[in-house]
Design a protein that fits this description.
six-stranded parallel β-sheet, alpha/beta, Rossmann fold, 371 residues, 2 domains, six-stranded mixed β-sheet, elongated
Length: 371
Amino acid sequence: MTGRGGRVLRASSCGIALLGAALLTSCGGSGSDSTAAPAAASAPPSAAPSSQASGGSGQAAADGTVEFRQAEAGSGEGLKLGFIALGDSQVPFSKLVTDSMKEQAKQAGADLLVCDSALDGAKALACAKNFKTQGVKGYLNFQVDAKVSSAICSQGPQVPVIAVDIEQQPCQKSFMGASNERAGYLAGQAMGEYMKSKFDCEYDAYVSMEQPAAGAVNEARMGGYRKGFTEACGDIKNDKTVDGGGALDSARTKFADVLTLLPGAKRIVVVAINDDSVLGALAAAKTAGRADSVFLSGQGADPSSWCEIKNNPNWVADTAYFPEKYGQIGIPYLIDMVKGKPVPDKLLVPHQVLNSENITTFYPSAGTNCS
């Protein structure tokens, strides 16, 4: 494990990487993004996604995106549900997800049994076995080890299962999590439109801070970036792809090397697979006295990046994943599923582009207590 607060985690058995505030998985799910390219959004949204109360199944968009919706009070009365958490003490993203699941289950009146797998497949299997003993009627599974998913399915309760951010075959009925191509596309489009409006798409280099170890997720997210950017600015010029490792320290080192190759560059577009990678690139630019020359975009919009998003004019756009709202998808849809209502097989997060103008709409405290 590398990086702050468990921000980067690799499980070599299935190519999983936890990067910044966003969980990346090359084991399946939305990582491969087989859906059609998203429709263009001409500008970053200025309002938060809706959080509608709903007693029945919500409608998914053509690409699998669903809206956050508050669990209806009383909708889970008499239901015992389960949630296998990823690793709340190791991964801040996981703790936000768990808290959201608890909040929505309480609102619905459901009894939610939470079992933390602590990034351990054996513990996740034990959780599933306990769920069977406890008689849960459905559960959400956010465990990291793909090798044990089959055992969890066979030895756990034979009830509806929603996988969270990582495929849990063969028993998952739905997958909920990131829409990686769209997440990259939205930020790439915002960056392209910014460069077009400010500089008529004149720039010296396009640097893509990637993590190839994340496999299909890296390809989908960073490919989405390129698609969005090129729609605004045409073919990419002086394209440099860098394996930044998904961590702040490694990204800083790698981007420092890039800067030495671009000694006279005044406008460097930097896009990254997560916020830690952008923060690393920015740190390298500051050390070199070239912070004004980099124009930045990240993924996650987690608290580590809020001050930069709000106060740094060169931090152009960041795609938010909203782990603190995951329960507004997982719990209402799991209750629907247990009650036999139809549920889409993809429940993808409604990503939003955040910038200095709209971040406080989503996170009112963003930009405060900044040194």
